[in-house]
Amino acid sequence: MNRWLLRGGRILGGDPADILIAGDSIAEIGAGLTAAGAEIVDAGGLVVLPGLVDLHTHLREPGREDAETIESGTLAAALGGFTAVHAMANTDPVADTAGVVEQVWLAGHEAGHCDVAPVGAVTVGLAGERLAELGAMADSHARVRVFSDDGRCVADPLLMRRALEYVKAFDGVIAQHAQEPRLTEDAQLNEGEVSARLGLAGWPAAAEESIIARDVLLAGHVGSRVHICHVSTAGSVELIRWAKARGIAVTAEVTPHHLLLTDDLAVSYDPVFKVNPPLRTAADVAALRAGLADGTIDAVATDHAPHPVEAKECEWAAAAPGMIGLQTALSVVALAMVETGLLDWAGVADRMSIRPARIGRLTTHGRPIAVGSPANLTLIDPTARWVVEPSVLVSKSRNTPFLGKELPVRVVHTFLHGTPTVLDGKPA
Ligand SMILES: NC(=O)N[C@@H](CC(=O)O)C(=O)O
Ligand SMILES: [Zn+2]
Ligand SMILES: [Zn+2]
């Protein structure tokens, strides 16, 4: 049997302890463990986290393998410390049938870098007109629990209500890309001082907040779960806080980039900063950080959105929105939340593993680091710094605003069901 002895790592940043992995689970935790025949990993100085879980990854396969493949995207995930990712449905063909979600699940399984949980589309072809076969996707081998038209908003309120009602039967959740389409036609960046100065069409906060207000009311009315993708405004945080206080089953995510970057970066006209929803103001960033710290926002999700060079090396208005984020997520969260004292490592584990796994109903991820738990673990060096060189990025796309920047915290080892996917920062 596969045996690994991780020596002297600090579980969630606590006191040093040894962890013995046997097979796919944690067999022992304690001081001075010995295990004949086990491979030894020196984890001195490293912090041990439960394997990270991403609720929002665009793997682009099938259809846009020039931007990313399931192989390249899940390898980027493992190097970023993730042991599971939810693969968004806006592929070509769209993941709106049991056949497509099973194909994505199987390709993820064969790549073997992390578990892939396919997200099913809410509507056929993401067209926002007819519900997709949600039940068949839930019952399929892929066991879909998260459904989203991400990239597009489920704008029709009656269709949204029906989707919320439908997924109750199998404990599913609708993950809404909250963007009122009529209020954002042609929108290029946050509506405010910067958009006015640049003379570009704005994307008002109200376009996000009006959909969130509507959908938490609908979820409360039908007694179903709704999840809000990539929350980006202070007002959205307030609405979610209000809904949670009323007992509505709403959860929410924020991206690393929305925790750090602001809309004034657009003055460069560099499309690397173009993203949906757009980068907002410093006041929004502060509210997002506070909301994540107090648990109003449940999770960090990368919204890893790879695009080929030609989709980004063009004029701002013609560029595709989105940024890659799997390999930089933990570092950016450390910068925005840990170095500012807003979250400790236990808090990071909660927002990047435990809660996202619970929202996605992944039973073998986000478990406590304890004897008997599945050995999905991420070991990080909290004191290391690294430069985001193109050569370290394994994604097929390069559209990250952090290219060339120095970031804190390195992912050193990642274990997936007891087997290393990353050792010493390299694919195992
Ligand atoms: N975030 C983005 O700007 N783009 C995403 C879609 C999305 O998440 O809305 C994409 O698929 O490229
Ligand atoms: Zn989206
Ligand atoms: Zn997305």
Automatic annotation (TrEMBL):
Gene Ontology molecular function terms on file: allantoinase activity; dihydroorotase activity; zinc ion binding
Record flagged with keyword Zinc: yes
Residues engaged in binding Zn(2+) 1: 56, 58, 150, 303
Metabolic or biological pathway, per its Swiss-Prot or TrEMBL entry: Pyrimidine metabolism; UMP biosynthesis via de novo pathway; (S)-dihydroorotate from bicarbonate: step 3/3
GO biological process per UniProt: 'de novo' UMP biosynthetic process; purine nucleobase catabolic process
Domain Dihydroorotase catalytic: 46-234
Cofactor note: Binds 2 Zn(2+) ions per subunit.
One Gene Ontology CC term in the entry: cytoplasm
Active-site residue list: 303
Pfam family name, one: DHOase
Enzyme class: hydrolase
Function: Catalyzes the reversible cyclization of carbamoyl aspartate to dihydroorotate.
Keyword set, alphabetical order: Hydrolase, Metal-binding, Pyrimidine biosynthesis, Zinc
The protein's name in its UniProt record: Dihydroorotase
SUPFAM superfamilies with a match to the protein in the record: Composite domain of metallo-dependent hydrolases, Metallo-dependent hydrolases
Residue positions binding Zn(2+) 2: 150, 177, 230
Recorded name of the encoding gene: pyrC
Organism superkingdom: Bacteria
